[in-house]
Structures are given as structure tokens and as C-alpha cells.
Batch of 3 targets.
Target 1
Amino acid sequence: MYRTATCGELRISDVGKAVTLAGWVQRSRKLGGMTFIDLRDRYGITQLVVEADAPAELVETATGLGREFVIQVKGEVVERSSKNAKMPTGDIEIRVNTINILNKSLTPPFTIEDQSDGGEDLRAKYRYLDLRRNPLKKALELRHRIAHEVRNYLDSKGFLEIETPYLIKSTPEGARDFVVPSRMNPGQFYALPQSPQTFKQLLMVAGYDRYFQIVRCFRDEDLRADRQPEFTQIDCEMSFVEQEDVLNMFEGMMRTLFKNVLNVEIANPIPRMSWYDAMDNYGSDKPDIRFGMTIHEITSLAQGHGFGVFDGVPYVGAIAVPGAAEYTRKQLDELTEWVKRPQVGAKGLVYIKLNPDGTVKSSVDKFFSEEDLKAIAAAVEAKIGDLVLVLCGEKRKTQTQLGVLRLEMGGRLGLRKPDEFAPLWIVDFPLLEWSEEDGRFYAMHHPFTAPKPEHMEWFNSDKKEDLERVCANAYDFVLNGNELGGGSIRIHEAAVQERMFEVLGIGKEEADYKFGFIINAFKFGAPPHGGLAFGFDRTCALFGGQETIRDYIAFPKNNQGRDVMIDAPSLIDQVQMDELCLASTVKTDA
């Protein structure tokens, strides 16, 4: 065998054993006449020692080892004279009598250490080396553990893991599809699934009443730290359920994950909040409730004082930032410029400082008396020493801007702690979103989401104002300001589904072409059903205390959707283009 133990396995109880280890050279150093080598594998590091009086050939081999050489060693487990309490194997070392070099290594382009000297781009190019580092190893171990716990929980609840196709029909509604040309059907294309939505509904029609899949999904959209073109979902569907059944089932799953993976107890039951309350109080449909600083409307208090900026808008809102009255003018000017950035989009910022000495200072105090400012401060629940920040404009847009500002201030004040977890269900979403630009409704979730049963009269109305009042039978699972999962009770009646397509401006011919298979399926006894999909990569990242999902994916893409390690996407040759009946309009030198 190449090894009888791993590099993270041996302890003081193993002293005296003859062992064989194999792994990578982390580092080596000379001390007097002895050579010390740290040998690393997936399981840990063990120190090796080649004594000064060892055979000359062994000493020469040990001295010539470079970083990341792959070696096999044989020797005896001995007790270390200077122990290292920071290493699980720090009480022992291996007195080596044989070294076999299995493979030499070039000098790595960056250090294989927890804190590497390699930049993100360089480490992405050599991802297979980056994956040797402990932080990434721990991230992938956490991913495995979560997947294992998910499968165990869902299996215990009677769910079947069923695979669905990757090559499907393009039904663009939301993000762009990735498409795949078909050689056997010239001029026609498959799409890669954005989710298994229609297939899991068809499985419900087929009678498989509890389905799940840890499944790859694909969306051609702009990327960021928590988004990849290919990502993984914990995809689930259930039959003969109402919203409460689904929420209870997956609250149980999340409690199990937190307990078994992190040994953390979360709220039971998990609190619920309507979409309207979330927007009004937090400016976000995925609010971070680890801290307060909620949004308050102060329109009536802010208007009528001769300040035209406030008087000319439909909404004025504010947040109270605890203990931030000490902000200097320079800091406030910087914050004003920050809210003007395109990512926030505000035109300016008004502040009120409740100084520790009891005085009040504001950027608009020539328009407002001290009593007026104190009334605003009281309305937003500000205390002495707090800073009140005010934005104004169109209601939902301003609330969203205040929500972004709230998160920024929470981050600056250290209120968004990665080891604190505040889960939340968001419910009662609007079913539809009106686009002024397109002059039509879009589905806020997707076109298979059922309206609330009590809103069916509005749903069947031709009045825009009635349709805007319809709530979806939908729900999102939110954790620490991140949407981890979303789902809904689905439409299961053909007539209701056809009405949804009608409201969305999808004509019968187009609906039959894109979705005829599922409409027809509903005519053969579709049961009431609903489900939910969790973002698996994002769940892993949040459990690991990180914002970015890249470290929790073995081979991720960068922000341009490129895999710089294998240099993909890439051009294909003319033979392949001809086989696929494709012609390129892009001029290249290739």
C-alpha cells in the first residue's frame, strides 16, 4: 500500500508503530544536522524528521525535496521533544528510514498556505493548487456535509431523489437561457434548464408526491460574488399540500442542518413577515433582521417646512443609526457621495445628529426648528447619540435605497456578524409586477405560481388595479439578508394556468408552443402541489461565514463567466461549426 495512515491520523498512542505515509511536501527545513519535513494530505500535516546520523543517501534525498513534491515515507512514530499544540498531530513525528519520490513538482506560483500570497486571478488559473489550501478544503468538506444531511433528512421524510433532463426546450421567461445546438436536428436548439420547474410539476402529476434533487441549474445573467452561470439547487416538490405544510417541512430541514452541521439552534418556529412589511420596514424582500435600524416613513413630518426637496416628493423615509452621532462632517460628506453611487441611486442625503450633550444638528436646520427635528427623531425611534439619515423620492425606490444604506451602516458598525443567524420566511408576495416600459405584467416569481385562493376574484378581473392587488401563494426563506430559498404553491388547474398566460400577455398559440405539455398534463388529474428550491452554493457559503460562493464550488467561473484554468468558453473549429449548421458573425484572427 502507498500508506498505512493519513497525515492527520497519528497520535501519541501510536508511538512505536512502523507506518507508511504519502502526501505533498508542505515545507522542509534544516536544524543542525537534522532535516524536518511537513508532509500534507487532505487529512492534515505530520512532521517528518531525518536524523543527522541517517544514511547519506536518505539525507541527500531529504535535502533535495522541494515544495509540493509527492513522496512516500516509511518510518517509526516517535514522541516529539518540542510539541506543537496547534496541530492535531503535534505530539508526534515520524523518524524516517525511507523516502520514495513519487513525483517532483515545479515551484508553485503561490504559496500553498491558509493565507496565500497569490491573487484571486492567479489562484483561479491554478485552481487545482488553490484547492490544496485548507480554507478551500474545509469549504468543500462543509458542502459535502450539508449535502449528506439534506439527503438524510429528505429520505427520512419519504422524498425520492429523481433526476430530470439537462437538455430541454427553451422557454425564456426571466433570465436568459444557455442554448445547445442539436447536430441531429439542424437549426434547432436545446436549452439548459434554469431550474427543473416544469419537470418536477410533471412528477407530481405522475404521482411521485415527494420529489427532491440536488441539481445543477444554468442562467445566462450578469455575475457577482454570490452568483454563477452554473449553480446548484436543493430542489423539492410535494403533492397534496398547502403553504403551511411546505413551510413546516423545510423549517425542519433547516433546523436539522443548523443543528447537525453547525451545532446551532435556530428559532422555532421561524418568524414570518409579509413582503409589504419587509419593503416598508427594511427596504428589501430579503431583510437582514440581525439588527434593528428599521425604516420609518416621515413624510407628514418632513413636508410643509419650505424645504423643496421634501415638499416635491411622494415619500420621505429615515433610519436611526445607533451611536453614530459622532460622525464627522467629512464622514457625512463621504456617506452622501456613497448614496449617490449608481448601486444606490439616491440624489442626496439629509442627516440629523442627536449629540450626546442633548443638542441637535442637521444639514437642513435652517428649514426645521429643533422641535421639528426632535419630532422626526422620535418618530424613527432615535436616541441621544444616534444619527438619523433621511432619503426621499418615489416610495418603493426610496425604501430600497434606505434598505441598501441600512445594510451599509450595519456593516460599518459591526452589526452583521457572520456567526449570528436570523432566519425568516417572507410571504404574501405580489403575484404580478407591472412594467411601464413594456406596458404589461410579468410574474414576480414564475408563471406557474398560484394566486392566493381568496384573491381569485381580483385575478380574474380585467382591471389593472385589481390584478396589482393579487398576492401569490409564494414564500422565500431568508437568512442574514440573503434569499436562500424560494417557492410557491403551484397552479394545478389548466384553466387557471391559461388565465395566467393571458394576464402575462402570452397568447394561446405561444403558450401551446412553449408550455403545451404541462397544460395538457394538468388535464389528466393534476394534484394540488407546491415546492421550494434552496440555493445550495449560497447555503454552504453562509454556513461557512462567507459572502462569496466561489470557494464552495470546486471549479467556479469568474465575473466574466470564464473558467480561466481551462480557458473556457473558447472557439470551436469550422468542422464542428459545419456539423452544427452554425455560422459565426464574429470576426477573429483564429
Note: Residues 430-471+495-526 form one domain.
Target 2
Amino acid sequence: MTNDNNASKATALRTHTCGELNASHAGRTVTLAGWLDSKRNHGGVLFINLRDLYGVTQVVAAPGSPVFKTAEEAKSEYALQVTGKVTARPGANANKDMPTGEIELAADEIKVLNASLPLPFDLGEHAGVSEETRLKYRFLDLRRPKMAKNLVLRSRLSRVIRDYLYDLDFNEVETPLLTRSTPEGARDFVVPSRNNPGEFYALPQSPQQFKQVLMMSGMDRYFQLARNFRDEELRSDRQPEHTQIDLEMSFVDERDIARVVEGMMKAVFASLGEQIAAPFPEMEFSDVMLKYGSDKPDLRYALEIKDCSDIFKASAFKVFSGALADGGVVRAIKGEGAAAFSRGDMDKLTELVKKLGAKGLVWLRYKDGKWDSPSLKFLSEAEQAALKERLAVKDGDAVFIAADKASVAAPCLGGLRNELIARLKPAQLKKWAFLWVRHFPLLEKDPETGNWTFTHNPFTAPLPEEAHKLDTDPGNVRSCQYDLVLNGVELGSGSVRNHTRETQEKIFALMGYDKEQVQKRFSMIVNAMDYGAPPHGGIGIGYDRLVGIICGTDSIRDVIAFPKTTSGACLMSDAPSPIDERQLKELHIKITG
């Protein structure tokens, strides 16, 4: 921090922050305010670490001084105001690992601004403390330097993003939080309308339709750090409410949007002192599923899935030849060093792929120049040799093979790939591995209704060269959808949109909506298409996920100030909670369950 920045933090209760003082301040009388972080007694002298958001300063209370009794009685997390003289620490006592480690504050006055109850957990070392406890006392959890640093970084990065987009003439526009329910892939949170009994608002799963209408309104370039709400099953990277870097552009194609997003990511990482290369690598959806078994592969690691169907097309091994005869595939992945896995380890990996849908897993270990496997007797020497060559197998490696429908083999080996990375910890090829995954299928069959449904959202445009297949072969139409992946996490998803009513209504019809239903559910957007809607597209990037990856957290709850648990509860505020009968009556709602 510069002196100017710190000077701006001076208030009626402090002249400096606890992270500001250094040797240049020696001899000056200053006032600090913060929390008692820790206290120790060395030979009768009390040393207090006083902490605020900006750092820690060591405060000294000498025995016999007027402040000694107050310092002695103060306990962890007492809010204190301390006035004293800045003194240089003797050379041997200086702490060069601490920004304020060259000085200490000899206290002339200590004032207790507020006492604290005994803490429910140690803020300095919370190992073993449940997340539930941390969330219940979130106001204490956020005092921990690690958590505070996460939130400060989140705030700083939002400024970097805004400045970058403002410089490209994007306009920040707020879209409604009270809207109508439309099918967008997850369940809506709904809000009853008191003035319209029996009718409900929905909280937006995304600003999708509104940002498209903004393009149809001529805004050209829109962005928003948008709040989104989705009533879905929660996990470490999902919250019922989350923040999205949402942007939309007119008169663009996929490459135009990619260039803007790549520039934004370069700006974000440059602000952290990190340099990333652009343009980012890109792959077709079909290719990434073949090569990595996932549409969000972690490309920090080199493990690749290889198709081996040709090797086993005439195999005597019925597991392979039978799968191929049924129109399936035989695919394999190599684990470098995995020959050290025990039989028990192999059984666990087999159970893993079975949970993912596979019938089983064939594995072979290559040790001391020869193969070892319960399935080895079914494979010819030519097949063994071809497999070794195809996967570049070396001594100490193991090979894992799935034989099934491509739609089953891909995700099973993708899950296995992730497990091999976790177990083998291979060398990273790079620190930040971005990837564009492009041209997902436009439609897929809904297993419940049998109708076609969207794979991304219903407004995604088909690839122009494949749009004609909507009439004859809709299941094989690729879309203008793209996902941005970072280190194995789906960071963002977007597309070029339909901008003509004809195409949009054709897609809705395939999904089972007649024109009357389209008008009822989507009138806002389809009506706007009738009035010269421009070609447009955009993307939504998970801001919580981005900050979480940068901070190295396992859960996005660690980069959100007041998150919910996996059951959707806020333990600090006790939400959700019942409402009283008067409120229910006003809303014309009766609880029957």
C-alpha cells in the first residue's frame, strides 16, 4: 500500500492501519485500532499482536506501565485502540517475514472498545473445526486473514473486470431480479405476488432473455456482475445464488466473443502478476470427449484416452469383440507408474467406472518387460504389442480399457482419468490451463417426455451449415455453443443466439411447444425478434468459480461472504425460516404439507 492510500484510512479512532507501519515511522506517536490476535508474556513484558484487515502490528506493554493491567486482562478478539510510540525492534528481534516486523508499538494507552466472549474456535488455526461451525460464526471466520484476503481479492478483481470492459465500450446494465418462470435447465426459486394472488415471480437463473433483448434494443455491448438463482442440488462448486460475469455483444461471431473473454482473463491474471497466453486452445466437443472423456478436462496434465477399436476388431476376447459388434468402442488410457497399484487398487478403480455406468474395466500392468493381467490370456501377442505401441507404454505403466457404447466409455474413462491424476500426481504441463470447448450438440432427447430438449439453453443457434438438418436430423445438429474451461472446471458457458423468429420457433417446436405456448412463455424475446433483431451472442462466466480457482480453494463457499450449506441453509441468519400466518394470509398462501 502507498502512504497516500493508508493516509486515506485514517479515522477518528486511528491514525494508521495495523499493516502500515515500518522503520520510517520510528519515533512517531500513532494510534491503531484492531483486534487482539494473540498475546504472550516474555519475562513479564506483554506482547500483543494487534490485527485489522490490513495486517498485524506488535504492541508492547511494559510491566508497571499504566496500560499493563488492561493488556493483561484483554483476551482474544477484544476490539482495542492503542496509542503509543513506534520503536525499532532490536536487530535480532526483527521479523523480516512480517511487513511490520521491523517495528513495534510501545503502548502509552490501551482502550477496550469492546470485549469478546470466549471464541467457539481458534481463528488462527481452525483445523478440525467443522464447516458448519465456521458458517454459523461467519462474522468470526471472515476475520481470519486467509478468508479476508479472499474477499479483498474478489473485490479487486471485480474492478479489473469492470475497467477492462468499460475500456471496450461495454455498458453495465442491471436486469430484473423479479421476472417470470421460464425453462432454463434448473428449477426456479419463486416469489409470491401479494398484489396478484395465485401468481408468482421467479428469480432469474441467468439474465439470458433480458440481455438478448438489450441487444435487440441497440445497446450493442452489455455486461453485468449478475446475481443468478438456481434451485438445484448443491455441491462444493454450486450455490443457490451465485455471481456471473455476464456479457452480450451484437453483430459478432464466436471468435469476437472469444477475443473479448481472453483479453479479460489476461487482464485478470496480469493484475495478479501472472502472464497467460492467448488465444486459448480450442477443441470440438466430439474431439474432447474422445480424447479426455469430459467436456471440462484438466489440461494441466497430459493423460489422453486412445481409441483402440481397430486393434481389437477381430479379437477373440468377447468383452471387446462383443462391444464392437454392438456398435461400441474400445478405448484405453495409460497411467504412468500405475503398475505399482495393488490388486485392491485395481478393484477400487473398477468399482469407480461401474458407478459411472461401465460394465467393468480391463487393466494390464507392464512390469519387468512383460504384461500382467487377469485378462492377458484372452489377448493375442499381436494385440498386446499393438496396445503397447498405441499408448507408448513403458516399464512401470498400467493400461485401463473400457469396451462399451461411446456415450458410456467416454465419461467412464474421463472419471478414471481424474482419479489417476489424483492418485499418481503427474507433473503439471502448466499452471493455468484454459480451453474452449466448441459446438456441443444443439438438442438431446428428454428421457421423460421423449421430446427434444436443449443441451445449453433454448436460445442457442445451430451452426449455420447444419441448420438445414433441423428438419431431417435434429439430433445431429451442432450448435454455436462454447464452454470456457480452466484447470478442469467449467468456468463459463455461452453461445451465438438465434436472432430470427423462424429459427427460434422451429427449435421450440422440436421441443414440443406450439406457437400458442411459445407466445405464452417466451413472448418477450420472440416478439422482439420481429423488429430487426441483430445477430448477437455472449457468455456467462462463474465469478465465484474463477476467484475460487485463483485462491486455490476446494469450495466456492470460501470466496463468498455469506454462503449457504449444501442443504441451502444460512446457519448464521437461520434462513430459510417459517413465516407467520399473517404474512401467509397476505400472500394468499396456505401450507398444506
Note: The mean pLDDT is 94.
Target 3
Amino acid sequence: MIGTVLGGRYEVLQEAEEGPIFASYRARDRVANREVRLRIVTQGLGDDVEFTSGLKTIVERLQVITHPGVERIYQWEGTNRPPFLVCEHFAGVTLEDRLRRLSSFSVSVTLATVIQVAEAVSALHQAGFAHGDICPANVICTPQDTIKLALGGLWEAYARSERAGKAVLRGMAPSMAPELNTGTLPNQRTDIYALGVMLYEMLSGRKPFPGDSTMAIAAKHASGDVISLRQLNSSVPAALDDVVRRCISKNPFDRYNSVDQLLGDLKMLHENLRFGRPLAWPTKPNAVEEEPPPVAPTMSVVNPKPDPKNAAAERKRQRKERSRDGVPGWLAFIAIFTTLLGLAAVGGWWAFNQNKPPLVDVPNIVGKNVTEAASELKKSGLTLKQVREDYNDKFGKGTIISSDPAAGRERAREGSTVYVVVSRGGLTVEVPDLKGKTVAQARALLAEVNLVLDENPTRVRSTDVGEGKIVNQNPSAGVQISRDSRINVRVSAGNRNVPTGRSTERFLYRVAFTLPEGDSPILVRIEMTDDRETNTVLEEEREPGDRVEVEAEGVGAQATFRVYYNDELKGTKTVKAETEVTR
């Protein structure tokens, strides 16, 4: 992949990291002359129409967000195979990597970091988005001590695809609010829950609800108890412990009403910590103090029976007393309901798996050609689907580079699909011998190895090569060069003189034309061939409908101009010199 040019303009420079949905690469945008991050769709999802159309729609909507803490997504390249996102590039490491190395953070660093994350989340919320996947893996810490929040809002595309949903579920589970497991869509309060989980992990070095499986983690989010932060880290102020508990409350209406409200408390804590002020205040400012309940119901002198209003108040007081001694009734109901729901889900999952096709071993098809690989998979009850082609120096053209699932790593259900990447051959190829062949024969031969013949070969006199056939070539036969390179040839004009027009006099040539109308900028490249050589005289991005005028200096009485739009040849024109250049 390194060195590959995607979409005709993005040169891949370095691999960054690979996630459940995207493989990220640092690349250079040759048109805009800037570094970008390419997030290339993996897992065979490039052909999932629901998923890719969802990404396209979301990216278009995300263009309105320009907050410095939110990763910019410039565009969606859906026609490429595999498709990819073009995103803002910035140096840094994920918060997940830093947690892996440092285990936990100081209170001050934690607050400073999460405040920045919350400000980025607030920008998403103000634009009408829920992030949906706030976790340390999606927070990048830059060398300037700032953060970038990545992949905001893309959960909408994941939700459209069963395959994408399964791929991201394991990574999302540790931060998922319990109501998400009952069909609720991500929203502001589920994002606040995820921020609370992040605070907890940064301060304690562990997740509040660890588990060995997605189901076990979800069950703990729904009904498990969380260990107090102060038991794990005595340096955590009680007020901050209260903030975290409020964020990860199982009842969404007990959490903060908005991220901005949470930000207010976090910033107050951070300021108090900086200036040595007390770190305690009411973390539920909306709570009001109730009048103490009566010791006994009030009796009427006329009617010694309790007053009905006071009797009702007494019943209410008794219910409150019971809730103080044990679990509140509403919470007990939710816990019982969630437990029954979990048991039903486990039972359904068990019954569903009893009727699933059996698991089979995935055969090793790497290195085999597509036909052989398909036949091998068919013996195991599996089908093959090609997702893309990549250049590869190790595997010959048409052979399998990799498969998903991979052989020996995991098993697959009988009847399922194995997604494969097929080799397009090596990054370099050997130049074939073109001497004695016609231009048409040479063009076809070069196409087989992904090389290109120059459109305007030079004609020369030759006594030993028949007219119309190639006399010599550059580069020479047998040389190893990069694919898609251009081969220049000289073609025989037979045993007769050919005017070469070679001279040392220099002239000015002019060419002008108007670009077609359209919606996207056009990369215009103009090559000029004079009596001496071929040079690129213009290469820049222009707007549709622009008037392009070029003045170039060359040798000879005339020159040939070739015009390319987005690397595609659009026209050739030979012009006569207008003015001789004097020195």
C-alpha cells in the first residue's frame, strides 16, 4: 500500500493504525499539497451499499463542524475500491495508547484532557450530532497537549450494517450506556455516560465495568455495582467522585442534562485545584431541601381519625424510609426487569445458535489463484468474494494476498462468505522488448504489464526496420520500472529522409482553451514536446469554466501540446511558434 496513489491524487506515505472498520494511513494530497489521513474501509464493507451510502450522507452533514477539537472529514471517496474517507492529518497518539503505558493519570491532567474532549462533544451536540462512540481509542493526544476527537457521528452508518455493527460492538461495549442495549439510539445523555467512563478509567487505570465478553460487559452496565473511585485512588477528590458517579448513573435522567452543564462542573473543579480552593460543592444544584416529615399523623379534635392529607403524607414518608434502608422501588423494578431481559436474551441467543450452520475451518488460500481458492473454499461450504486488488511484490498477479476470516485464526459458519484481496502483481515490472513491433502491438503488450505507450512517438529513418515498426525504446527492454510508467519509442519511417526540424533557435508558443462546466475542481496538466524534449509546462487545479492560457518557450518552429484533465488525456494540438526568443 505504501507508495500507492489512490483516487489519482492521494500518495500513501505511512501506515498509521488499523481499527475494526478503517485502516488509517498518512498520505499526501498532490492536488491540495497537504498531508491528510486516509481512513480506508476494511472488513469487506466497501461493497455494503447501506453502510457506504450512510457514510456518504453523514460526511456531507459533518462539513458544518469546524471546532478545532473535532477531526475534520474533508470528503468521502466512494468510487475507489476500497472506498475511503479523506480526513485532517495531525500527529499524536491515542489516549488508549497513553493509558496502556501510564495506567492512570493525575487529577489535574485528567480534568484538563476531559474538558477538551467535552468541549469537542459539545460542538457535535450543537450541530445536532451525538458522537456515539466516545472512548480512549477515538481521542488523539497531540504533541501540543491538545486533543482531537475522531469518528464522531459515524455510528449512524454502523447501525445500517449488521457486519459493521458486529465489528465495532466489542470496542464500544465498555463505554455503552445501559439504555443502548434496549434499543435507545445514541444521544447527549449516552455521550455523557461515555465521558464518565473515560474519567473513571483515566483516574483509576481500570474500566468501571470490566468483562470477558460483550454480553458480560453489557450486563454489568445494566445492573452491576461500580467501585468508588476513592477506593481505587485516594487522591481523587470526593466532589470529582460525585461528578463521575452522576455521569455513569444507570438512569439517564439522573445524569447531567447537557455536556455544557458537565463542563461547568469540570472547569470549576479544575480552577479550584489550580488555585488551592476547596473541591466540594453541591453536585446536584437543582435539588431542593424538603421539610422534615411529621413524626405522626395529625389528629383532629372533632374527629380523632387521621387527616386524609396527612395520612397520605405519612404513607409517602414510610415509602421513603423503606427506600433509605434498601434499594428504591423503581430501581429494584428496573434491576429485576433488566435481569429478566438479560436472561431472555441469553436464552434467545442460545436457541438461535442451536439452529445456526456448523462452524468450519477456513482453508489456507493465500498464494492460490482465484479459481483454485474458490474451489478450495467450496469444499468447506464457503464462498469467495473479492473486495479489492492491491500491488504486491510477494504474490503474483491474480493470486490471493489475504483472506477475512484468515486461515487458522478463526472459524466460519458453513455457507458464509470469505472476503479476499487479490494481487495486481508487483509494484515494479520488467519492460518488454518492443523492437520490430507495430505501435498497436506495443500498446497491447505494455497494457498487459500496466505500462503506457507515449501517444506521439517520434518517426525516424531506418534501413533495417520496416516502416511503421518500432526501432528502439526508452527505457530499454529488461529494465525494472514502476507500473503505470510511460514508454517512449521511435518508429521507422522506412528508408527515406524524415524532416526532424531540429534546431537551436528558441521560440514562444501559446495555447488557450476553456475548461468544461462541472461541480468539482479539475487538475489540469499540460505537456509540451518541442524539437528537443517533452516538458510539463502547467500542472495546477482550476475551477470548472476557467479560461486557461499558457505561454511556453521551446526549440523549433512548432511544438505539440497534450492536455490532461485529472490525469486523463483530453486533447493534442500542434502550434507554430509566434515569436523568436533572442538572447
Note: The chain has five domains: 5-88, 93-274, 359-420, 428-492, 506-580.
